[in-house]
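Module 6 notes. Inverse folding takes a fixed backbone as the condition and produces residue identities as the prediction. Think of it as a translation problem where the source language is geometry and the target language is the twenty amino acids. Below is one complete input and output pair. Work through it position by position during the lab.
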């Protein structure tokens, strides 16, 4: 019914847990390389339990390969107009929340890698497709914010590294947050995927499921 897309995932246990969620919801899983692990990784299989054998999963060389093989690209290889309507890019930098989005069967829910999220070039190219999960700001959640900030900078994902230049050049409709409002704290990738996937399923009435 839906497609979960992981852009360069790094932690096998997250991907394994997301694969399990895909199996029990009838969703397909798409993995865009490079991956931070092997698909034979024991941690991935352990998190996915026996569900991994039943998973509909496809791996792609890069973003363009993913677009082409799923009919989301135009003749130039960029995202087509229809493709833009089927893609939901989850990012902390969007203003629109995931519950404000409208989901259709077959849509693609795209999540970035754990250390840095989705590349800003993708977000800037598809501003209307960007959505976020609301979270409290760092000053209300992290007592050790400075320590976390240093770790994020070391991974290339800190506020001193992400300058938001691409977003500011393309954002004429207020689709992105203020660059100075960068947040370190974030939900676990597997939790984020489950939250958005179930909102999408709720919107289409949980077809074939016991909704209670």
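Target side of the pair, the amino acids:
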């Amino acid at each position: 019914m839906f497609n979960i897309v992981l852009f360069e995932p790094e932690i096998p246990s997250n991907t394994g847990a997301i694969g399990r969620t895909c199996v029990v919801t009838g969703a397909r899983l798409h993995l865009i390389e490079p991956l931070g692990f092997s698909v034979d990784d024991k941690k991935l299989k352990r998190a996915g339990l026996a569900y991994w054998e039943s998973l509909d999963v496809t791996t792609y060389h890069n973003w363009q390969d993913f677009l082409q093989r799923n009919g989301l690209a135009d003749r130039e290889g960029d995202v087509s107009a229809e493709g833009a309507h089927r893609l939901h890019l989850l990012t902390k930098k969007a203003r629109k929340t995931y519950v404000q989005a409208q989901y259709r069967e077959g849509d693609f829910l795209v999540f970035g890698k754990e250390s840095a999220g989705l590349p800003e070039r993708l977000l800037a190219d598809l501003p209307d497709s960007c959505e976020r999960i609301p979270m409290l700001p760092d000053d209300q959640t992290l007592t050790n914010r400075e320590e976390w900030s240093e770790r994020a900078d070391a991974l290339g994902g800190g506020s001193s590294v992400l300058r938001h230049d691409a977003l500011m050049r393309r954002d004429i409709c207020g689709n992105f947050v203020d660059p100075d409002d960068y947040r370190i704290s974030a939900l676990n990738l597997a939790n984020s995927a489950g939250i958005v996937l179930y909102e999408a399923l709720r919107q289409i009435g949980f077809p074939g499921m016991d909704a209670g």
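Reference fact for the lab report: The chain has one domain: 3-204.
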